[in-house]
């Protein structure tokens, strides 16, 4: 197994593949969406293997679905929809395929989200919110136990961006703290998601930070968001907001250095622009909060 993730990285996106397979991108690590590479042969895994020769890799999944009441990763209806690779990863295959990818790439981190993406044969392809109840906490912890046991390694789980609140539920930071305590998993702290969620719920992002299990943070995400009709939306299509940089500066003051990366999935600029933005993260210790 490779060393723990450290330094400053970027999400490896298709327009920049050429810079990563040659090792010329000046980053300390890359993160990829696991499901895009969970196929044993062909160009995707070849590309990732070539990048892996130059960089530590973080595998970041979107389909484990630890919040599904019927267990992680449900079956899909249409396994012949080869236009979307996610559609033919079934429940058991999913963890086996992820394990095969882990064994092949030897990633520095393996993560997914606190969310659910489907149930039974239904797949939403969205990161849906988990009602933060004791019952859901049991479901999530069972799923994380199962995944970590299958992969024989600790995983990180990301705090979601949140747009609705279910009545009578616990604060997200309490849910995450219990999840970490009961499963031994780590936290992939998305600082932009904290800002988006806190703002949407009329709460202070610093107070949100106060409640999180910061001792368990193994990786940090930064990203841009947009103003929607009813609140902030985690769009990943813009530069990191100044308020999120300030929250990041306060975060690492509390955690110490943590592997940090920028996610950019829309309006993807030239790599150099993202490298310049990432350079800001390297100066966060001296940023005003
Ligand atoms: Fe994220």
Give a verbal description of the structure.
The protein is an alpha/beta fold and 289 residues long. It has one domain: Alpha-Beta Barrel (TIM Barrel). The chain contains nine helices and twelve strands. Helix 4 (134-151) crosses helix 5 (172-183) and helix 5 runs parallel beside helix 7 (205-211). The longest helix is centred in the middle third of the chain and has 18 residues, at 134-151. It starts with 7 loop residues before the first strand and ends in a 7-residue tail after the last helix. Fe (ii) ion is lined by residues 158, 190, 221, 223, 263.
Task: Give the neighbour order of strands across the main sheet.
Answer: 1-2-3-4-7-8-9-12
Largest sheet: 8 strands, parallel, barrel
CATH architecture: Alpha-Beta Barrel
Instruction: Tell me the distance between the termini.
Output: 36 Å
Question: What is the domain total for the residues?
Answer: 1
CATH superfamily caption:
Divalent-metal-dependent TIM barrel enzymes
User: What is the CATH topology assignment?
Assistant: TIM Barrel
Low-confidence stretches: 74-89
Gyration radius over CA = 18 Å
Number of β-strand runs: 12
Helical proportion, percent range: 25-40%
Based on Cα principal axes, name the global outline. Answer: globular
Q: What number is the mean pLDDT?
A: 90
**Structure ligands:** fe (ii) ion
- The ordered H/E elements are EHEHEHEEEHEHEHHEEEHEH
Global structural class? alpha/beta
Number of helices: 9
Instruction: Please indicate the percent range of residues in DSSP E strands (runs of 2 or more).
Output: 15-25%
Q: So what's the CATH class?
A: Alpha Beta
């Amino acid at each position: 197994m490779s060393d723990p993730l450290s330094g400053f990285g970027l999400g490896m996106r298709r327009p920049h593949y050429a810079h990563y397979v040659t090792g010329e991108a000046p980053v300390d690590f890359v993160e990829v969406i696991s499901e895009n590479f969970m196929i044993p042969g062909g160009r995707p895994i070849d590309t990732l293997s070539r990048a892996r020769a130059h960089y530590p890799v973080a595998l970041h999944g979107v389909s484990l679905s630890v919040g599904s009441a019927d267990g992680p990763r449900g079956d899909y209806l249409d396994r012949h929809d080869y236009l979307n690779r996610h559609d033919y990863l079934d429940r058991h295959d999913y963890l086996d395929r992820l394990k095969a990818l882990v064994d092949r790439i030897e990633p520095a981190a393996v993560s997914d989200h606190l969310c659910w993406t489907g149930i039974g044969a239904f797949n939403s392809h969205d990161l849906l919110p988990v009602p933060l109840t004791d019952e859901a906490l049991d479901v999530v912890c069972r799923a994380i136990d199962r995944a970590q046991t299958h992969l024989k390694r600790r995983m990180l789980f990301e705090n979601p961006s949140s747009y609705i609140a279910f009545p009578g539920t616990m604060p997200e930071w309490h849910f995450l703290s219990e999840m970490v305590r009961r499963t031994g998993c780590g936290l992939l702290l998305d600082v932009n998601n904290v800002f988006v969620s806190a703002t949407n719920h009329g709460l202070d992002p610093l107070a949100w930070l106060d409640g999180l299990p910061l001792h368990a943070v193994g990786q940090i995400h930064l990203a841009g968001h947009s103003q929607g009709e009813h609140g902030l939306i985690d769009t990943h299509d813009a530069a990191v907001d100044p308020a999120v940089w300030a929250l990041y500066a306060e975060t690492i003051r509390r955690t110490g250095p943590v592997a940090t990366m920028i996610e950019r999935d829309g309006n993807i600029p030239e790599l150099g622009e993202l490298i310049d933005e990432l350079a800001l993260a390297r100066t966060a210790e001296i940023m005003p909060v």
